[in-house]
């Protein structure tokens, strides 16, 4: 191939990762992508990609890609099946059909379902398979709103922490990545920076070269923890106690910034009173740390200037995780750390992007639906409940009769997998899945539709780990008959006879609407007024202009977008809802501190894999090799393994009242005593056909009604060799 015929296209990694990398795709003269690389001109990507996406062409051109619409053969039972869509043999439960037939039949079935049971019996189920603005939520939202389908409360990831943060600060702004380089102390709290957010790492390293210390608070010894100066292996679900303990020491020793507190915050006196209850001795008993460690942590945090907190979403995946995030988020407001470059905190920067979402999602279309009102809301973290119990009380609306999945793999990622699968197995449930691969979810589909990857469609995108708006050009033609989410829902809307002009909008038109340009073509959105679609398209990425108050030093002065206009230690909103307006520690119902631990004494961390993206990539050989050391293993501390007679490598059963997994024990120093951990894989690639979510519950968080993956109790025991079945013989019964 002549190099002259190569072109380089600016795309954006659309996976659900804070980094939203700028990816340069090299395409040869035949239209085939031959190389992906991080854009060296992007200030956060800085020329490198993570190990997962560096191998992206293995995914795009995988022989296992779904390339054509598939329909379940008459009589073929739902349930686990092969992952090779090309297998058109008798074993395959699917047959290949054309797009026209697929769209016609699906539209007809949705129409019948809506007529017969009411449109709310249709449930869309999607998350962030793509974070592209259009693919994540545009034509799909319009379609389901106009149809009158149930609305989905997207709580599987970040709602507890997001709402908790907003209760304190009003908006998800925070310390920019580049500013971490100026820190003297970086506190990674429930944040696996090296595994999940690798593009923050160079700034952490830069700070450390200038003398900064890295402290990691995480029950698991992650790659980040292993690289830290101090790893604090807190007990899962006890972070609110630790944060209150830190406050106790700060206030007892007068290390707070009184001027900042009086200027910027609301409810300090009540918080101070609450914090007095959390002396280091009490906090130590809950968290498993020593009182001296709590004292040292508090003093180091409050006196090292500037100190930056990277609080990711690990803390809030537990029952009282909302409160824990609220308490932790208050720390930089007590020390006045927001005033210092290299101080403050970052949970998510997504609030920096103010796209015109109303314009692309069109919630007003719900009023044009046959319901004529907003449809009921179904919580995605209770999918099992939604498919098996919802609607048994008529006040809840109809049971779910049709499920439309895209951008997600609930058969693998949703909690209480056995309940979810019981729902998915219902013969009367009509299920459509739009996917790139034959996942744990497509196994239950009536129709499987082929989806494009981010190389195959055009997008614009924000980020939750940096503040650059980006344009992702289409690098290659869609493989086979793969089509984008926008295309799919445009076709369905046309076939269902939706006549509103917005259903004719092209992707370019919707990108324009998201930017909301004035007559000169420049966005009217705050922070984007220097951005036009033409510039964004030609340059690939443009930094938002946030002004000092929002960008590098948000919350350093001025008003805050909370009801009081201040940073809220005390929340009148929570008080009005009948909840504790101040943070407090309450032990999760599933933790070693709860009665349930008598039966199931071990705290289970059903973790994300470092080399997969949730369940994405787990089916690719190259990625599986990188993850081989922990695949099908449960990590257990020697203190828990030895008394159970468990040796390294031995087959064990990990179980609770919801499910059971057979895994190999890995006696590991990465988990502390009392904690066991395993990684999320595809169920159908695992020994029992299930993954870690067979053990997790549908219990919801205190704030945000979100999933509680990290509040899960289990027991672990060696697998007994099954006794050989023999013919019964006549003997005296043993007494
Ligand atoms: N490699 C890789 N990168 C990813 C993902 C992936 O699957 N793989 N997923 C992406 C997604 S969807 C998201 S939301 C982000 C999330 O990124 P993170 O928020 O970093 O996500 P987690 O790995 O869930 O949690 C972070 C850490 O919190 C720890 N943790 C668990 N329970 C507790 C607790 O009670 N207290 C404390 N202090 N820590 C606790 C976990 O052990 C984990 O190491 O990462 C994204 N990036
Ligand atoms: N035990 C346990 N469970 C967890 C977590 C955990 O840490 N532990 N993490 C939770 C979190 S934080 C999250 S965010 C969720 C994530 O759960 P999901 O949102 O299900 O994320 P993925 O597993 O990455 O699956 C996304 C799917 O979307 C598909 N996809 C990608 N792009 C497109 C597209 O353009 N169109 C269509 N139609 N499909 C596309 C991919 O092929 C992939 O199968 O999992 C949650 N579940
Ligand atoms: S997954 Fe994250 S780190 Fe990897 S390329 Fe995508 S955005 Fe970058
Ligand atoms: Mo997530």
Q: Would you give an account of this structure?
A:
The chain is α/β, with parallel strands linked by helices. The protein folds into four domains: 7-60, ADC-like domains (N-terminal domain of TfIIb), CATH 2.20.25; 70-155 and 355-543, 3-Layer(aba) Sandwich (Rossmann fold); 175-346 and 565-576, Dimethylsulfoxide Reductase, domain 2; 595-718, Barwin-like endoglucanases. Strands 5-4-17-16-15-6 form a six-stranded mixed β-sheet, with helices on one face. It has a six-stranded mixed β-barrel with strand order 22-26-23-25-24-27. Strand 2 and strand 3 (33-38) form a beta hairpin. The longest helix is centred in the N-terminal third of the chain and has 19 residues, at 99-117. It is globular. The model is unreliable at 729-735 (pLDDT under 50). It binds ligand MGD (2 copies), iron/sulfur cluster (SF4) and molybdenum atom. One ligand MGD is lined by residues 16-17, 157, 189-192, 195-196, 217-220, 222, 234, 236-237, 239, 312-315, 317-318, 605, 608-610, 612-614, 710.
List keywords for this structure.
28% helix; globular; 6-stranded mixed β-barrel; Rossmann fold; alpha/beta; 735 residues; binds molybdenum atom; binds iron/sulfur cluster; N-terminal domain of TfIIb; 27 helices; binds ligand MGD; disordered C terminus
Q: Between the first and last Cα atoms, what is the distance in angstroms?
A: 82 Å
CATH architecture of the largest domain: 3-Layer(aba) Sandwich
Cofactors, ions, other ligands: ligand MGD, iron/sulfur cluster, molybdenum atom
Unreliable spans are 729-735
Number of helices: 27
Q: What is the CATH top level name of the largest domain?
A: Alpha Beta
Oligomerization category of the chains in this entry: single chain
Instruction: Tell me the number of structural domains.
Output: 4
Largest sheet: 6 strands, mixed
By DSSP, the count of extended strands is: 27
Bin the strand percentage: 15-25%
Helix content: 25-40%
Structural class: alpha/beta
Radius of gyration (Å): 26 Å
What value does the average pLDDT take?
96
Shape: globular
Strand order of the largest sheet: 5-4-17-16-15-6
CATH topology of the largest domain: Rossmann fold
């Amino acid at each position: 191939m002549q190099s002259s015929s190569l072109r380089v296209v600016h795309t954006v990694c659309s996976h659900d990762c804070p980094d939203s990398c700028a990816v340069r795709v090299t395409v040869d003269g035949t239209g085939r992508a031959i190389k992906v690389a991080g854009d060296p001109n992007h200030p956060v990507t800085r020329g490198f990609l993570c190990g997962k996406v560096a191998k992206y062409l293995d995914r795009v051109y995988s022989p296992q890609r779904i390339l054509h619409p598939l329909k379940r053969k008459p009589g073929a039972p739902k349930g686990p099946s092969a992952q090779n869509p090309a297998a058109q043999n008798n074993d395959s439960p699917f047959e290949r059909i054309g797009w026209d037939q697929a769209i016609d039949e699906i539209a007809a079935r949705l129409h019948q379902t809506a007529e017969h049971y009411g449109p709310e019996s249709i449930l869309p189920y999607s998350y962030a398979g793509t974070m592209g603005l259009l693919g994540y939520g545009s034509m799909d939202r319009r379609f389901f709103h106009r149809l009158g389908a149930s609305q989905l409360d997207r709580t599987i990831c970040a709602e507890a922490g997001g709402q908790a943060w907003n209760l304190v600060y009003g908006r998800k702004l925070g310390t920019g990545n580049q500013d971490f380089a100026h820190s003297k102390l970086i506190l990674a709290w429930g944040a696996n920076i090296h595994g999940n957010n690798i593009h923050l790492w160079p700034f952490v390293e830069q700070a450390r070269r200038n003398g900064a210390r890295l402290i990691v608070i995480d029950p698991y010894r992650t790659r980040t923890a292993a690289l830290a100066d101090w790893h604090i292996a807190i007990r899962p679900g006890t972070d609110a106690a630790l944060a209150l303990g830190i406050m106790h020491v700060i206030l007892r020793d007068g290390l707070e910034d009184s001027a900042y507190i009086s200027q910027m915050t609301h409810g300090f006196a009540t918080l101070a009173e609450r914090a007095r209850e959390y002396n280091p001795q009490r906090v130590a008993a809950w968290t498993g740390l020593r009182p001296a460690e709590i004292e040292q942590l508090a003093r180091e945090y409050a006196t090292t200037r500037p100190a930056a907190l990277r609080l990711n979403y690990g803390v809030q995946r537990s029952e009282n995780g909302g409160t824990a995030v609220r308490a932790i988020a208050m720390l930089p407001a007590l020390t006045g750390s927001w005033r210092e470059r290299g101080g403050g905190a970052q949970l998510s920067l997504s609030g920096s992007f103010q796209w015109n979402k109303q314009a692309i999602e069109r919630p007003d279309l719900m009023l044009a639906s046959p319901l004529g009102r907003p449809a009921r809301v179904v919580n995605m973290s209770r999918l099992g409940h939604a498919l098996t119990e919802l609607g048994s009380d008529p006040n809840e609306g109809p049971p779910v009769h049709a499920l439309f999945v895209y951008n997600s793999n609930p058969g693998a990622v949703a909690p209480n997998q056995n309940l979810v699968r019981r729902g998915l197995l219902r013969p009367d449930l009509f299920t459509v899945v739009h996917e790139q691969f034959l996942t744990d979810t497509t196994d239950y589909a009536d129709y499987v539709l082929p989806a494009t990857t981010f190389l195959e469609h055009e997008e614009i995108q924000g980020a939750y780990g940096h503040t650059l708006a980006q344009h992702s050009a289409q690098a290659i033609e869609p493989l086979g008959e793969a089509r984008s989410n926008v295309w799919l829902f445009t076709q369905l809307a046309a076939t269902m006879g939706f006549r509103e002009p917005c259903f004719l909008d092209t992707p370019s038109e919707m990108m324009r609407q998201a930017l909301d340009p004035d007559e000169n073509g420049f966005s009217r959105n705050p922070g984007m007024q220097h951005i036009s679609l033409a510039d964004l398209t030609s340059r690939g990425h443009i930094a938002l202009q946030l002004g000092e108050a929002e960008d590098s030093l948000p919350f350093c002065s001025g008003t805050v977008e909370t009801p009081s206009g201040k940073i809220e230690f005390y929340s009148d909103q929570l008080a009005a809802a009948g909840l504790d307006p101040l943070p407090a520690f309450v032990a999760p119902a599933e933790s070693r501190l709860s009665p349930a631990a008598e039966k199931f004494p071990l705290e289970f961390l059903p973790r994300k894999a470092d080399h997969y993206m949730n369940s994405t990539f787990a089916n690719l050989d190259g990625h599986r090799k990188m993850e081989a050391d922990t695949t099908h293993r449960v990590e257990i501390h020697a203190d828990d393994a030895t008394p159970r007679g468990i040796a390294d490598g031995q087959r064990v059963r990990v179980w609770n009242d919801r499910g059971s997994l057979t895994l190999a024990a890995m006696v590991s120093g990465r988990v502390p005593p009392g904690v066991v951990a395993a990684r999320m894989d595809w169920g159908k690639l695992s020994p029992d056909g299930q993954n870690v979510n067979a053990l997790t519950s549908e219990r919801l968080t205190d704030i945000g009604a979100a999933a509680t993956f990290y509040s899960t109790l289990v027991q672990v025991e060696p697998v007994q060799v099954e006794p050989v079945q023999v013919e019964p013989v006549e003997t005296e019964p043993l007494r």
